[in-house]
Design brief:
With 397 residues, this protein is an all-alpha fold. Helices cover 67% and strands 2% of the residues. The protein is built from 14 helices and two strands; from the N terminus they run E-E-H-H-H-H-H-H-H-H-H-H-H-H-H-H. The protein has helices at residues 49-68, 85-88, 90-96, 101-118, 123-151, 161-167, 185-203, 207-227, 230-236, 241-256, 260-285, 290-308, 318-345, 351-395, and strands at residues 13-16, 19-22. The radius of gyration is 23 Å and the shape is globular.
Length: 397
């Protein structure tokens, strides 16, 4: 994703029959020099292994939170442990109660990675990349979770078949239908971000366009809640917008270098983010403190700044690539199925051992899904979509 500095390509010269003739400049996916902020460096993209590690860390935070740190799990008679988890493993509970912040971390990373992966791509390429990335593991997760609920009833309510089938579209939230697994709510937020950013991708990404997008989206996201316009709130996504914006600003820092404007956008994202963290604690989480949540979020943002500015460029390792690959399947499958398994085994195993065993089991399952579901199905989808778009292009001529 990041890499060494690059300089504008100079015309090449070759000798043709004794005469030197200039060749045209090499084609590049980089914007022209006039489109770059003056005096900024440009780095060709390469894989940032540290981000893979952060992604898995965030997924593990969320899983631990759902198993041992939620308000639901700390209530007497809860379906997971039957008694407050803070009584069963108080130390684990204190740490796990902050794990929900992993979702906000996902959103920031998503803004960074989406901007990076879209640079120099067409809307068609962006669409295909999102479909093959999101759907294969998601489809498997729906089937897997539904099968667990059929095999182990009595913990979670199973949805009617028609609602389960609608979940395969990933658009159920827009139709007022519940998710097969509660964690899918974040996908609806991601999809709205993709649709908005697609408008910028369609015009060709540049530093200026992404900055303007961040500013306009941020302003609309701030105004949407007071506008009392449901459609505007739906589009602007005020609960998640500033996390994605933070990721976009961080990627611009990585690609072009830091400047005061980007620091200002990131600072605004931090200020809006700390407010949203407090609101989520008050309305949903209840079990964690605002100061601790903001501290964790701030440390994460500083880690992302270090990655963006190249401080982690020497961090390498194939295991980190594997860690990144496990993240999405783990997130999709861990909650409903994992808490159902805990419900069945809570009286026969030590609670701490059980949590570790369930997380470990889902990591293994996630690797299997990535290897035998995501990769082959993504390849099949890509070939099919490329053929379909080629047919559309030819039909228009």
């Amino acid at each position: 994703m990041r890499g060494a500095d690059s300089r504008p390509t100079m015309p090449l010269r070759v000798v043709v029959r004794g005469l030197q003739q200039p060749l045209p400049p090499l084609a590049s996916t980089e914007p022209t020099t006039k489109q770059q902020p003056a005096g900024r460096r440009r780095r060709p993209d390469r894989r940032l292994y540290a981000i893979d590690g952060l992604r898995l860390a965030a997924a593990l935070m969320v899983a631990l939170h759902h198993y041992a740190g939620t308000y639901r799990a700390d209530r007497p008679g809860n379906v997971i442990w039957d008694r407050p988890v803070s009584d069963i493993m108080p130390t684990v509970f204190r740490f796990a109660s902050y794990g929900w912040i992993g979702v906000e971390i996902f959103f920031v990373i998503s803004g960074f990675v989406i901007c990076m992966s879209c640079w120099g791509r067409t809307p068609r390429q962006f669409f295909v990349s999102r479909v093959i990335r999101l759907y294969p593991a998601y489809w498997f997760a729906i089937v897997f979770t539904t099968a667990v609920l059929v095999a182990l009833p009595g913990v979670w309510t199973r949805q009617p078949l028609r609602e389960v089938l609608l979940n395969f579209t990933m658009l159920q939230s827009g139709s007022g239908v519940g998710n097969v697994d509660g964690v899918y709510w974040t996908l609806w937020s991601e999809l709205r971000f993709y649709l908005l950013f697609l408008l910028v991708v369609a015009t060709g990404l540049t530093y200026k366009k992404v900055v303007v997008f961040c500013c306009v989206w941020g302003a609309v996201a701030m105004l949407a809640p007071v506008s009392k316009l449901p459609l505007l709130e739906l589009i602007a996504n005020p609960d998640g917008a500033w996390y994605f914006i933070a990721g976009l600003a961080l990627y611009l820092m990585h690609r072009f270098g830091q400047d005061l404007l980007l620091w200002g956008i990131l600072g605004m994202a931090w200020l809006m983010g700390q407010l949203e963290l407090g609101q989520r604690i008050d309305e949903v989480e209840h079990v964690s403190g605002w100061r601790g949540s903001v501290l964790i979020f701030t440390v994460f943002l500083l880690a992302m700044v270090a990655i963006a500015l190249g401080a982690t460029d020497r961090v390498r390792g194939k295991w980190l690539v594997t860690a990144g690959a496990l993240t999405y399947p783990l997130y999709l499958m861990h909650y409903v199925a994992g808490t159902t398994v805990i419900n069945r085994l809570r009286d026969v195993m030590d609670a701490r051992v059980l949590v570790v065993a369930v997380i470990g089991g889902f990591l293994v399952l996630s690797w299997l899904v990535h290897r035998f579901v995501e990769r082959p199905v993504a390849g099949w989808l890509k070939r099919g979509l490329d053929t379909s778009f080629a047919r559309l292009r030819n039909a228009g001529t």
